[in-house]
Structures are given as C-alpha cells and as structure tokens.
Amino acid sequence: MYLYDQYDQAMVDARVAEFRDQTRRRLEGKLSEDQFKPLRLMNGLYLQLHAYMLRVAVPYGTLSSRQMHALADIADRYDRGYGHYTTRQNIQYNWIRLEDAPDILADLAAVEMHAIQTSGNCIRNISSDHFAGAAADELVDPRPYAELLRQWSSFHPEFTYLPRKFKIAVIASDTDRAAMKLHDIGIQIVRNEAGELGAAFYVGGGMGRTPMIAPLISDFVPLDQLITYAEACLRVYNRHGRRDNKYKARIKILVHELGPDEYTRQVEEEFAHLLDQGVEPPLAELERVKGYFELPETLRYPGAGRDPALAESLDSDLRQNDDFRLWFERNTHSHRHPDHVSAVISLKPVGGIPGDASAEQMHLMADLAREYSFDECRVMHTQNIVLPHVRISDLRALWTRLEAAGLGSPNLDTIEDIIACPGLDYCSLANARSIPVAQKISQRFAASGRTAVLGELKLKISGCINACGHHHAGHIGILGVDRKGKENYQLLLGGSEAQDTSLARITGPGFDEDGIVGAVEKATDVYLANRAEGERFLDTYRRIGMEPFKEALYG
Amino acid sequence: MAEEIGTSPDEVQFRFRDGEPVDHAAVTVDSFLDQSNAAAVRIEPGDDARDLLPYLDRLALVEVNFPTFGDGRGYSAARILREAGYAGELRAVGDVLIDQLASMRRCGFDSFASDKRLDEDDARAAFDRWHDVYQPAADTRSPIWAKRHGRG
Ligand code: SF4
User: Fold this and answer.
1) pLDDT tens-digit profile of A458-510?
2) Are residues A372 and A433 in the same domain?
3) CB contact B120 to A (< 8 Å)
4) Which of A80, A83, A291, B144 has a 20 to 30 A CA-CA distance from A475?
5) Domain residue limits at A320
6) Over chain A, what is the mean pLDDT?
7) DSSP string for A213-235
8) In this structure, are A255 and A393 located in the same domain?
9) Pairwise CB contact (< 8 Å): A285 & B71
10) Inter-chain contact A14–B137, Cβ cutoff 8 Å?
11) Residues 95-124 in A contacting B (C-alpha not used; CB under 8 Å)
C-alpha cells in the first residue's frame, strides 16, 4: 500500500492546522456560515438533518489494518459506535460535533488519512476497482495511477471552485467493477498495439437527475502525459461549465451541450498548450508510487495452477459445511495467484442497514486483514469490505470468525446485497427513506428463499434524485420521490454499472413503502417466468423489454 | 471613452511585487478590445482571458473580478495570463476571502483588493499555510514530486 513520506504527512498536518483555525474563526463569529460552509465541505463536514456528518476519504478504497482500527476508534470516541461505508468507497460518520471535527482530522492524520475534498465543488476522492492488484483479469494495478491523480488533485489551486463536484475513477481491466463510465472522468489503463501502457479517457458520465454514460474522448493518452491531459479536461470544464444552474453544472452537461467532438477538440487544444507548461510529474514519480503497490513476495509468482494439497484441504472444508460452501461460492473472487482469492465481507445482513459497521466489527475486520490478507482491506463501492489476498486454506477459519460476528452473510451480488443511500433517516436532501425499504426487501427475499433462485440481481436505492444510491445503474433501481408530501417510490429496471453500462428506465407510477416491496417481488416473478437458460435478471429484461413487467405491475 | 471601473491603489491590501500599485482605471474586456489605449483591464468571470493575449505587452494591470468567491473561473484566467508570459500586476478583486488567498497566489495573483478588509494576521497565516505543494502552477514553487526526485 501507499505510505506517506514526509511531504505527504506535512500536507495533511497543515490541513488539520488550517481547519482548526477555520473552525476557531467560525466559532468566534469571524466567518459567517455562508463563508464557512465551502471550507467545512472541503474537509468533508456536512450539516445533516440531526447533526454534522463527516465523510472520510479512503483513496481508491484501500485501508491497512491500522487505518481500519483508527476508523473504529473514531466511531467509538466521536460517534455512536458506528460508521457507514459509502458508494464512493469512503466512510461517513453521522453524529459528529463541530467542535470535535479538528481533533478527528488530527486522529486521521496520525494514520495517514484525511477528509480532504470529500465534498465541495472540487475534485473528490479518486475511486478504483476494489479487486485492484488482486484480480486475475486485470492488466496492471490501477491504484498507482489513482494515487498520482490524488496527489495532483489535492489542493489544486485552479480547481478548487469548479462549477460542481468532480469524480474520477481509474480501472485497469475490461471488467468494470467501479462504474467507471458513470464518473465525470473514467480512466481505463490499457495497452496499445506497440505494447505500451496508456490511459483511455471517458469524460462526462454521471448519475444524478440527468444520468449519462461517458463517451470515450481519447483512447490512448501516454502515461507521461496523463496528468497534463487530466488538467486540460478540468480547465475546459472550469472555464466553460455552466454556473447559472446548479442542476446543469456537472461536466456531463457541458460535454452533452458542446457534443463530445467539440469538447474533445477544446481539450486537445488546451492539452497541446499545457504540454509546454511542465505540469507533468516525471515517470520516476510513477515508478516510486508503483513500488508501494508491489504485491507481497509470496503472491508475485503465480504457479501454473493451484497447489494440490491446498486445493484438497479447501475441497474437504467445502464438503463438510454447506453454509461455508455457499459463502465461498458467492463471496469470493478469483485471484491472480491461484492459491489465493479475494474474500468479500458482506455489510448486508438480512434486515440490516446496508454499509453500516459497528466499531467492534471494524476492529475485527482490521484484525482479519492483518492475519489473513497481508494487512490490507478494501472498501467496495457496493458498501462491502474486501480482504484482497486470502490463502484458500485460511478461508474456513476466516469465515468462522466472520459468522460469529454477524459478518458472514453469503449474499454478494444477490438481491440482498442492496446499495442504499442514507435517505431521509439522515440526509437533509432526501425525499424518502431508503434504509427501511432495503431492510424490508432483504427480509422478504431471505424469508421466501428466493434470493438463491434469483442469482445475480443488483438492486440499488436512492432517497432522492441525486442518486447517491446509484438507482439508475441497478438491474432494479428504486428512487424515493415526494408525492404530495408523502414518501413514494419509483421502480426502475435495466440499469448496469458494469462494462455493459446502461441506464435503468422507470416502469411507471410509483408505489408506497409496502407497495414497492411487492412491486420488486412482481418484477422478479416476471423474470422467473421468462428467463432462458443461464440468463440473469438483467439479460432477461434486455431480451423481453419493459412491457411484460409493466403488465405485471400495472395491468 | 469607456466607463472607468476597477479598484484604486489604496484598496490593495496585499501586494507581492516591487514598486507602487498600478494606478490606472481599468476598463472592461469589451471596451479594451474596442479602443485599446488602456493599460488596465478588468476581467469578469464570463470573459475569455485569451482575448487579451495579443496585447499583454501594453498592459500594466489586469484585475480579475470574483463577484462571488464560489465562482472559480478567475483562477483559470489568472493562470492562462501567466502561462502566456504576462508579467504585469494581476489583482484579485471582489469577494476575495482569507481562505482563497493561497490558491489565488498560486495561480499568479500578486495583488489583492478585497471588497472588505481582511484580518491581517489571518491573511498572513493563510498565505504561509502550505509549506509545500503537490502540483506546479503559476508561482515559482517547485512541486513535491520535483523535490522527491532531486529537481527541487
Ligand atoms: S440520494 Fe438523495 S437522499 Fe440519498 S444520500 Fe444522496 S442526496 Fe441524500
């Protein structure tokens, strides 16, 4: 993992000092709330319905056990013993006092963490593939590029007051596990015909009230021009993005209104100019960063296949225990080293709050990361935690400890693995609650035993049009709206955030809270009645279209 | 005659260049492009700083107005002028607040005339806050990556 040097540490320390000073000036009345707001936002501090919420950056989702322990301690000391993992691979605390915020930032800085640019109209935390560095199907580890971008974008003097927030994701696999094309900039590290690595840039994607899939604007930017190209993309946006209407201020609107060709032309022009300005770090800096992401020695040289002794011991564990087998089948992912897998810890217990973990659970996950996964864990954008490098012979012991702590739900990518935003239980922008709907759905499907029958089914819930719960990208999406002062839920079908990115469509009139649970069930009836061999819900929907679903729902 | 706008030297609270503040009344970018003998111009957020590039030699003062601090177009305008070699006074005016000073300075502003007086101590602390920087900009500071690789 990346480790701070004295420069990185000095930056976060200076930031803590700055925010302490800003908070002091606010408490002394020298700063108005209007003036303070963008400053606290740039430190991740929001004013929510009941209290301040602090969002902590987890760059590309990667955490060491020490950092995970520190997050648990913050939950205990300053919150109510919980944290909430978000779709941006970050963690949020929902019950923070303003006076405590500088101390929390200091605690974070002590473990090389921060809340810099986790909100505000600036470049936000860079996200990535949660299986980065481990997945069997990836070209290279995308995180060194994300780290390079993190440093470039931190306190960038020109891009601190953009028209709107700006989110970047970096992946390096054809399988997209980071919703890359639904970001302001999505970068895929690719290899060209000459065998060189470079970056494909997709610009202008996003969710929110006007969801858009990012068009490709450059299929190959050489690695020694990566930062310069990003800078050009941002400068064109900063200068020409709309500022007259908050809802039209994201870069997707600019790219859409100019057209991808014209936007690209402007970027290329700016890029040509910036190439002479010396903004690009030397490749030696990329190499330095890469060094931190080297795999542990034992994982570096995958043999031809799985060690037969390990394979046999795993097989025997699987034969002995059906629950373990189910968890293994659902919650592990193949690793580039055949004696290992990436294991997903589900934060979606049936009837629980998606993405929540208690301080105790966080401490346990930190211990498990140290014991079984080379001291590393990851936050997934689906609000679960990954142990990226687990030896297959350790899986049974790992699972046993997860089970005992309520963290062994075998439901990755099933209908119980719901993404839900905080909704009206916490969020001041919400129209409707998300959490109770998620709880009811997972309970209903777990009780009926249908979860297993349905297989892969991604369900995502947002409490308002801002789409923090990615409802546009759900195989099934649910959107909370306000209907004459009452909470109402629209149903959407057919979204995907994977490499086959698509935007879900609304089925028709919305439902009340109980009605939406029934409507989801009806949609799955239609799928089960129509599915062809091997089809997922999404595949069936794409083949048969919206009509049969509408009929079942409203007919 | 174009309408004269802009700040006067006594409104300049912080300045990072030698000599007296430039005392010319500024004109809008439109009038500057029309007429032309003006030595001072004022950029509004919607103006294209690149329109001025052919005339940089003639300019002694460019004011960049921030009607609200949240509109960040002026940061790009400033950098574009500096990247093109503008060496005259670059003054940030309008809703210029303590917590924007450091970024503005990095983008090439060397003179600051806020709508309202800023607390001297708080402002000095803000200018000096960042010992190091992650990226090159329009100031002369070398970025952290240059220091790491012996180029600082
Ligand atoms: S989608 Fe809406 S309700 Fe949910 S967290 Fe985002 S802003 Fe809040």
Assistant:
1) 999 999 999 999 999 999 999 999 999 999 999 999 999 999 999 999 999 99
2) no
3) no
4) A83
5) 304-404
6) 96
7) PPPEEEEEEEGGGHHHHHHHHHH
8) no
9) no
10) no
11) 121
Q: Which of A346, A356, A345 is nearest to A92 (CA)?
A: A356
pLDDT of residue B150: 87
- pLDDT, position B152: 64
Give the domain-ending residue among A290, A312, A335.
Answer: A290
The answer to whether A53 and A46 are in contact (CB under 8 A) is yes
- Residue nearest (by alpha carbon) to ligand 1 atom 2: A464
Q: Looking at residue A23, what is its pLDDT?
A: 92
Strands B14-15 and A52-56: unpaired
Mind listing the pLDDT tens digit for each residue in B10-58? 999 999 999 888 888 889 999 999 876 889 999 999 999 999 999 999 9
Tokens of A362: 């966080």
**Residue A385 maps to which CATH number?**
3.90.480.20
pLDDT of residue A311 exceeding 60? yes
Query: Measured in angstroms, how far is the CA atom of residue A87 from the centroid of ligand 1?
Result: 11
User: pLDDT tens digits, residue range A349-378?
Assistant: 999 999 999 999 999 999 999 999 999 999
Q: Does B50 touch chain A (CB under 8 A)?
A: no
Asked if B111 and B90 touch (Cβ cutoff 8 Å), the reply is yes
* Cα(A174)–Cα(B63) distance, integer angstroms: 48
From A466, A471, A479, A489, the mutation candidate for ligand 1 (largest count of ligand atoms within 8 A of CB) is A466
CA angle B113, B119, B125 (to 5 degrees): 100
Site of tokens 């700063």: A31
In a domain, A523, yes or no: yes
The ipTM value here is 0.96
- Whether the predicted model's global pTM rises above the 0.90 cut: yes
A502: domain CATH number is 3.30.413.10
Cβ-based contacts under 8 A for chains A and B: 103
The nearest alpha carbon in chain A to B122 belongs to A21
Predicted confidence (pLDDT) at residue B104 exceeds the cutoff of 70: yes
A514 contact partners, CB below 8 Å, separation of at least 6: A440
Residue B3: the pLDDT is 60
- Contact with chain A for residue B55, Cβ under 8 A: no
DSSP H or E stretch at residue A399? helix A395-404
Number of domains in chain A: 4
User: Can you give the pLDDT at residue A303?
Assistant: 77
Query: Which of B48, B131, B136 is closest, CB to CB, to A278?
Result: B136
Could you tell me if A367 lies within 8 Å of chain B, comparing CB atoms? no
Share the mean pLDDT of chain B: 92
Measured between CB atoms, which of A5, A159, A279 is closest to B136? A279
- Mean pLDDT across A150-162: 97
Cα–Cα distance measured from residue A403 to residue A42, given in angstroms and rounded to the nearest whole number? 38
Q: Does B115 touch chain A (CB under 8 A)?
A: no
The residue of chain A nearest to residue B127, with distances taken between CA atoms, is A18
